[in-house]
């Protein structure tokens, strides 16, 4: 606990936990000290629950970006009994922002695809901060098509601020490759489960996000643009990022309400960064359940379900537009 960097709204929790650690470290504690420890433990739990049940959208962004939050490589170690990494896109190279490979989740063999950011500077440079080039999305798609040949389900972990926006990526067709992935993923004839484990940023996220079951961790977010980017466009300064975050409605609760995600996976009390193993256990249960529910569907049912799922997104806006058009037609008549 003490090695974690507290976020601004966590400071009171950390202060209380530090005092609790000091009391628990006392040799031969008195009955009064034992009673104080018991009460303090209850208070720490109460404070965590109260704070994390009332986080703002901007607070959730900070949790999703926490440097100690479990990333794809952590989950590979905690979730899978086996993992054999596959490299390269057979054209340009091996984009380390996206990791792919055969994996085994209990008795279920699958193809795994996940975005990796890295924690220290060396890891972040190796994985390009989780921002993939076109070859990363090409690698992901080729491994999905390989999975389809062997009738293996696919699991995708989404955690990126966005696709890499550099000149080289644009020259090699970044936008085209993401659009191509969207089309081809909609046609892959095997179950696809997608989970947003941290940041789900724009096309960089949706490039591996077309799935039959789309889930999100409780304190992750999934958005068409980052709060800073939105603030820069609308308010001309990123200092308004907190207002942009609230306006974008991209938290797990909002997304589930809108029907964009199918499931919100609860995080341990205080966030996934506090207990990687407990988070991995909850995530494993969710994946197993989703894969079981999809395994009984035929190829035709699977593709139709996937198509209908994404067609329904935005139906309320379409209905409003239709109603307005009908009113205008009636008034003009």
Automatic annotation (TrEMBL):
<keyword id="KW-0275">Fatty acid biosynthesis</keyword>
<comment type="subunit">
    <text>Acetyl-CoA carboxylase is a heterohexamer composed of biotin carboxyl carrier protein (AccB), biotin carboxylase (AccC) and two subunits each of ACCase subunit alpha (AccA) and ACCase subunit beta (AccD).</text>
</comment>
<dbReference type="GO" id="GO:0005524">
    <property type="term" value="F:ATP binding"/>
</dbReference>
<comment type="function">
    <text>Component of the acetyl coenzyme A carboxylase (ACC) complex. First, biotin carboxylase catalyzes the carboxylation of biotin on its carrier protein (BCCP) and then the CO(2) group is transferred by the carboxyltransferase to acetyl-CoA to form malonyl-CoA.</text>
</comment>
<keyword id="KW-0547">Nucleotide-binding</keyword>
<keyword id="KW-0436">Ligase</keyword>
<dbReference type="Pfam" id="PF03255">
    <property type="entry name" value="ACCA"/>
</dbReference>
<dbReference type="InterPro" id="IPR029045">
    <property type="entry name" value="ClpP/crotonase-like_dom_sf"/>
</dbReference>
<comment type="pathway">
    <text>Lipid metabolism; malonyl-CoA biosynthesis; malonyl-CoA from acetyl-CoA: step 1/1.</text>
</comment>
<keyword id="KW-0443">Lipid metabolism</keyword>
<dbReference type="GO" id="GO:0003989">
    <property type="term" value="F:acetyl-CoA carboxylase activity"/>
</dbReference>
<dbReference type="GO" id="GO:2001295">
    <property type="term" value="P:malonyl-CoA biosynthetic process"/>
</dbReference>
<keyword id="KW-0808">Transferase</keyword>
<keyword id="KW-0963">Cytoplasm</keyword>
<dbReference type="GO" id="GO:0009317">
    <property type="term" value="C:acetyl-CoA carboxylase complex"/>
</dbReference>
<keyword id="KW-0276">Fatty acid metabolism</keyword>
<dbReference type="InterPro" id="IPR001095">
    <property type="entry name" value="Acetyl_CoA_COase_a_su"/>
</dbReference>
<comment type="similarity">
    <text>Belongs to the AccA family.</text>
</comment>
<keyword id="KW-0444">Lipid biosynthesis</keyword>
<keyword id="KW-0067">ATP-binding</keyword>
<feature type="domain" description="CoA carboxyltransferase C-terminal">
    <location>
        <begin position="39"/>
        <end position="293"/>
    </location>
</feature>
<dbReference type="GO" id="GO:0016743">
    <property type="term" value="F:carboxyl- or carbamoyltransferase activity"/>
</dbReference>
<dbReference type="GO" id="GO:0006633">
    <property type="term" value="P:fatty acid biosynthetic process"/>
</dbReference>
<dbReference type="InterPro" id="IPR011763">
    <property type="entry name" value="COA_CT_C"/>
</dbReference>
<protein>
    <recommendedName>
        <fullName>Acetyl-coenzyme A carboxylase carboxyl transferase subunit alpha</fullName>
        <ecNumber>2.1.3.15</ecNumber>
    </recommendedName>
</protein>
